[in-house]
């Protein structure tokens, strides 16, 4: 049996070269932690549901290549979306049609058939916001009443769909920014030093954690 002996150092005791190596090794270790994004994605799924995007699945790739970005698949709850987004942004509250429109949504006279889906034919390597689109079945809604459909519903729905697409693009960009910020912090020197302090790490001269 052969025994080896080596010195163990606190981080501040390392040479500058050993500190650089320790940071490099730690970044590589952090980069291989595939679960780092879970909290960010869970928070965004909850936020999307609040906005009316349900059954969401978020996709992303990052962070230095052309085509990197984030997107999501979802069903759209028309009732939540109309109240959370459309009232203040799309529909003119001085327009008298706002009231029957919201009444129809509330009593299920109008049903939603909107979904956010992957655009067919695109490579699975891409996840940016332009890889998804809003899929509609017919006009994007269902008229559930026996009487004739009011003439204003279709143009109102078209305006709503255009707005949802604008919102979707902004949300995809926000999701990607959140992921990128979390990743940048994960591999930052600040995070490295906080981890050393909280875990009381010691190092070998080659920069490896003891």
Keywords:
210 residues, alpha+beta, four-stranded antiparallel sheet, 6 helices
Number of helices: 6
Radius of gyration: 25 Å
Structural class based on helices, strands and sheet pairing: alpha+beta
Assess the beta-strand content as a share of residues.
15-25%
User: Overall 3D geometry?
Assistant: rod-shaped
**Average predicted confidence as pLDDT:** 79
Helix content: 40-55%
Spatial sequence of strands, sheet with the most strands? 1-2-3-4
- Mind describing the biggest β-sheet? 4 strands, antiparallel
Domains (count): 1
First and last CA, distance: 22 Å
In N-to-C order, the SSE pattern is HHEEHHEEHH
Number of strands: 4
Q: Which regions are unreliable across 5 or more consecutive residues at pLDDT < 50?
A: 89-98
Overview in brief:
This protein has 210 residues and is an alpha+beta fold.
Can you describe this structure?
The protein is of the alpha+beta class and 210 residues long. It has one domain (11-199). Helix content is 46%, strand content 18%. The chain has a 4-stranded antiparallel β-sheet with strand order 1-2-3-4. A hairpin with a 7-residue loop joins strand 1 and strand 2 (69-76). Helix 3 runs antiparallel to helix 4.
